[in-house]
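Many introductory courses stop at the sequence. We go one step further.
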Amino acid sequence: MVGIAAAEPPNIPSESTARSELAALRVAPDGSSSGYSRDMFPHWSTVSGTCNTRETVLKRDGTGVVTDSACAAVSGRWFSPYDGATWSQASDVDIDHVVPLANAWRTGASSWTTARRQQFANDLSNPQLIAVTDNVNQSKGDQTPATWKPPRTTYWCTYAKMWTHTKYRYALTINSAEKSALTDMLNRC
């Protein structure tokens, strides 16, 4: 579709870097969800003025985004690389935590400080946040690539690179099924 850019979070590693990062990750069974709450990860922090993390990602990942005085997107277009859909209403778009908060909790974040969890939930410097179709994001929930992948198979390579880099950057563990799925997805690069 001409004129509609795909969402492109920063610092997506090369395939070779992602493979090295994947090899360096510690494989371990997921921990408990005990004590988990989204509230343990303060998210949509103020970035600048009245703009929070969600609004910042909507502007970064959209085309022709116009915001009101409260920084809410009132118009624009968003292409969701997960499913190939294009949206013109910000309400049809979710900001996906590539590595879901609940998964992070079970794989190491339960021991983090609140400040570290807030950094993870609002990370604009790494490929952890991306604007995607809301119901696709909701179908993902807190699943790993072992049980959920973007509907567009052409995006699997990029998704695996983003997931792996985020896990590596935050020293989170992966389980064996997740490692196998990520390896298969990187083989599509």
